[in-house]
Structure to design on (535 residues):
């Protein structure tokens, strides 16, 4: 079994094709959509957790790529610059997935990048610009 | 019980007992306040939060031929400094922005670089670009100056913050239907979050609420170096309502602080960007509280549970100067991660880093223990709770 959080960019020309449906039907994969931007006539963006057997997963990814979908691993998207972070915690209530949490004892802020859905709210509001986007 | 002089003797002999504000709380709970007061000579406090009324003055040295910056324009990395002094004295404020910064024209503005960031870069030892335009005089003929300069090149570089170290502060919320961008951070609509800005039980003025030991001349940890309390800060407002324990239940006292910037560290003075609001400087301050008597020990041992802050709406009440709070919450509640406002559970965020405040209190404790920091006697008191001193709104009058 393999399970990964990935970012899919759908170019405009294939945004209206039932691509995710095929992942389920033909490659036996399950998915959980974490975030989606689908606007008619524009590029679509889908952030999801994709799971299945190793072989199916590999074939599914190949199918996506051959269809023209650009794939990025999500875990690389938002990282914290440990030198810049002051552990203030102003990002904590803004994070929609509790990927940023204050340790009740040390009062330091932990960043769980496996929970991050790369919404980038923290990137925008961090007073010391410690949350960085890396593609 | 003991005097500052006696404490200093103990520091010099290496016999002083120092505790952080967190440690004395624990000690008082375990052994009682009487015992704690007998055992501990000094308690260290700390705070690390954005403080906009911060800045530094510089004497950049005379160029050849001479230039008079006074009355002219002077910029560090495009950020304008105030030049209304003698030839080469300038003051750079934390919120100053380059002329070409779009500010809030593209709303919300990012405010990526301002005076606070220049101060941080100087502390990092970096070269900054000094550009000046002058009108030229017989004794100061030069009209233009462009050079790289770093902190050590300056004659004087002095951090002089006219309002820091707020004694308590508002908890900011947003009752409106739209997101707002404030100096208290981004506030989500319909009570989406509640932001506070105090180190609570570690915060200097919350631990000496009547300014019994902190006064003009008090030696402090400032930005990783040594500083002094220069005056009471602007908007010092000691006459606000206080709790039975003497602690103000609203923003009240403030400090003006000063110290040699060249001895400070970038770790403790950080250029800061508040989206949609502006730039500022996050300042690390630590103040020692000498335990002169049991009453001071009692005050300094006040816990987060007994320190209260007002919850204020920043969509209407704050901008329109409408008094009134939505309620009161303790710092213990704020630190739990959620508070209740109008029946709704609201997640909390802090602008002031408690983790860093704790590090500052520990660092100052260490300095005192290794005899690097001798306490000073204040030379004058700050206006106190009974002084009648307070701050008033601007009374606008027609100009005719």
């Amino acid at each position: 079994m393999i399970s990964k959080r990935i970012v899919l960019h759908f170019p405009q020309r294939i945004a209206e094709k039932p691509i995710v449906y095929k992942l389920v039907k033909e490659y036996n994969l399950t998915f959980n959509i974490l975030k989606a931007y689908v606007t008619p006539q524009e590029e679509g963006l889908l952030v999801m957790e994709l799971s299945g057997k190793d072989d199916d997963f590999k074939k599914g990814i190949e199918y996506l790529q051959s269809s023209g979908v650009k794939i990025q691993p999500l875990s690389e998207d938002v990282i914290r610059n440990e030198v810049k972070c002051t552990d203030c915690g102003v990002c904590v209530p803004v994070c929609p997935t509790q990927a940023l949490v204050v340790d009740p004892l040390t009062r330091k802020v932990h960043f769980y990048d496996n929970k991050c859905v790369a919404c980038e709210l923290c990137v925008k509001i961090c007073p010391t610009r410690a949350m960085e986007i890396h593609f | 019980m003991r005097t500052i002089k006696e404490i200093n003797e103990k520091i010099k002999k290496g016999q002083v007992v120092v505790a952080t504000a967190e440690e004395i709380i624990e000690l008082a709970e375990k052994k009682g306040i009487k015992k704690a007061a007998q055992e501990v000579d000094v308690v260290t406090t700390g705070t690390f939060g954005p403080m906009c009324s911060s800045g530094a003055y510089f004497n950049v040295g005379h160029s050849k031929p001479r230039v008079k910056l006074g009355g002219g324009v002077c910029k560090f990395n495009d950020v304008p400094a105030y030049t209304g002094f003698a030839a080469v004295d300038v003051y750079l404020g934390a919120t100053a922005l380059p002329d070409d910064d779009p500010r809030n024209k593209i709303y919300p503005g990012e405010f990526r670089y301002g005076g606070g960031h220049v101060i941080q870069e100087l502390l990092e030892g970096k070269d900054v670009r000094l550009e000046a335009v002058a009108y030229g005089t017989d004794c100061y003929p030069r009209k233009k100056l462009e050079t790289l300069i770093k902190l050590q090149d300056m004659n004087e570089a002095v951090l002089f913050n006219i309002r820091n170290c707020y004694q308590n502060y508002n908890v900011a919320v947003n009752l409106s239907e739209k997101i707002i961008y404030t100096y208290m951070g981004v506030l989500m609509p319909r009570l989406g979050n509640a932001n506070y800005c105090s180190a609570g039980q570690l915060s200097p003025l919350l631990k000496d609420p009547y300014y019994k030991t902190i006064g003009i001349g008090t030696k402090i940890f400032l930005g990783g170096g040594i500083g002094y309390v220069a005056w009471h800060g602007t908007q010092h407002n000691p006459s606000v309502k206080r709790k039975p324990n003497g602690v103000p239940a609203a923003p009240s006292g403030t400090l003006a602080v000063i110290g040699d910037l060249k001895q400070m560290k970038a770790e403790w003075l950080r250029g800061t960007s508040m989206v949609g609001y502006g730039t500022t400087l996050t300042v690390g301050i630590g103040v020692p509280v000498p335990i002169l008597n049991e009453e001071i020990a009692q005050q300094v041992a006040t816990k987060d549970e007994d320190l209260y802050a007002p919850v204020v709406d920043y969509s209407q009440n704050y901008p329109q100067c409408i008094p009134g709070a939505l309620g009161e919450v303790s710092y213990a509640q704020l630190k739990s991660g959620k508070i209740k406002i109008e029946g709704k559970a609201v997640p909390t965020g802090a602008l002031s880093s408690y983790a860093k405040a704790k590090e500052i209190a520990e660092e100052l404790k260490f300095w005192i223990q290794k005899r690097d920091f001798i306490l000073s006697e204040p030379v004058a008191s700050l206006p106190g709770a009974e002084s009648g001193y307070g701050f008033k709104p601007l009374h606008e009058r027609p100009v005719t």
Chain B is about 15% helix and 30% strand. The helical segments of chain B are 4-13, 21-31, 33-39, 115-123, 204-207, 294-300, 331-335, 354-369. The mean pLDDT of chain B is 98. The radius of gyration of chain B is 22 Å.
